[in-house]
Specification:
With 282 residues, this protein is α/β, with parallel strands linked by helices. The protein is built from ten helices and eleven strands. The protein has a six-stranded parallel β-sheet. Bound molecules: NADPH dihydro-nicotinamide-adenine-dinucleotide phosphate (NDP). The site of NADPH dihydro-nicotinamide-adenine-dinucleotide phosphate (NDP) has 25 residues, from helix 10.
Length: 282
């Protein structure tokens, strides 16, 4: 079998240029102009390229976005002051802090200082807690994008087996919660999991976020399975995911590519969250 490729690039383009653009037009009529601020510290090449993609997608949906750049020597206090200003600025609806941050700055302290109503990355304890409780909230972007991609395949998760490999706070755990909310039976795997192959063997959907290049291979994927590959790695100038695409795409029913899979969906979800925040804040 050759897998159907789930193009995050296409799904994202469609959401941005139809749904989201229309929502922005409606907000503009009420004199609300959704605005996103990205705080960028230092000059990491990967961070700069993610930020560039965020700006490009903001333009597609018709929202405003700005980058606040700081030298890597910036103090934690300066960042906290800047976030405080943003929290109190009614013209700004969403703020994210591009990670990683230099070691002298506490990520938890910085993220916790963001007003949850402007936390469009969905990382604050308030928004994570609401997600856990099944309340309406700003859902973190990568898991949100994963669910939209699954939705684009017409998959009904009700009663399906989903195996999530990786339990990070930003991908694995929220993805598992979202699948549970859609009545999937979720198996969470991590570095201490015994016999990973057995946990994968009856999966209808496998979500892989381990941060190890080509970690999952085709021979670990059961029949009729959808594979979502969250990983992204640059190996000698060539991008690949946490799944060995070559072997996995021969086995899976559908699979996300790297690049062009989860990455664009994550950025699209960020823009969507900014629009949702603007709708709520006004
Ligand atoms: P983390 O490093 O935070 O978490 C990795 C997880 O994988 C941990 O839970 C770890 O287990 C688990 N793990 C590690 N080794 C194994 C193993 N041998 N078997 C099973 N599980 C294992 O990663 P993230 O979730 O932040 O990111 C994962 C990948 O996704 C990275 O490549 C990252 O770059 C990418 N990413 C891509 C995004 C996108 O938009 N495309 C967004 C976010 C991330 P344990 O908890 O036990 O240590």
């Amino acid at each position: 079998m050759t897998a159907k490729i789930i193009s995050g690039r296409e799904v994202a383009e469609n959401i941005l240029t139809t749904n989201l653009k229309n929502k922005v037009i409606e907000l503009n009529k009420k004199n609300i102009n959704p605005k996103l601020i990205v705080i960028l510290v230092g000059d990491m090449k990967a961070s700069a390229s993610y930020v560039a993609q965020k700006e490009k997608f903001a333009v597609k949906a018709g929202i405003e976005s700005d980058i606040l750049r700081f030298e890597s020597t910036v103090t934690e206090e300066q960042i906290l002051q800047e976030i405080n200003k943003i929290n109190n600025d009614n013209s700004i609806h969403g703020v994210i802090v591009q990670l990683p941050l230099p070691d002298h700055i506490s990520v938890a302290k910085v993220l916790n200082s963001i007003d949850p109503s402007k936390d469009v990355d969905g990382f604050t304890p308030t928004n994570v807690g609401k997600l856990f409780l099944g309340e309406d909230t700003l859902v973190s972007c990568t898991p949100k994008g994963i669910m939209q991609m699954l939705d684009s395949t017409g998959t009904d998760l009700n009663g399906k087996n989903v195996t999530v490999v990786g339990r990070s706070n930003i991908v694995g755990k929220p993805a598992a919660i979202l699948c549970l909310q859609q009545n999937a039976t979720v198996t969470m795997c991590h570095s201490r999991t015994k016999d990973l192959d057995a946990k994968l063997s009856d999966a209808d959907v496998i979500i892989v976020a381990v941060g190890i290049p080509k970690f999952i291979h085709g021979d670990q994927i059961p029949e009729n399975c959808i594979v979502i590959d969250v990983g992204i790695h640059n190996i000698e100038g060539k991008l690949c995911g946490d799944v060995d695409f070559e072997s996995a795409s021969k086995k899976a029913t559908a699979i996300t590519p790297v690049p062009g899979g989860v990455g664009p969906m994550t950025v699209c979800a960020l823009i969507e969250n900014t629009i949702i925040a603007a709708e709520r804040i006004g």
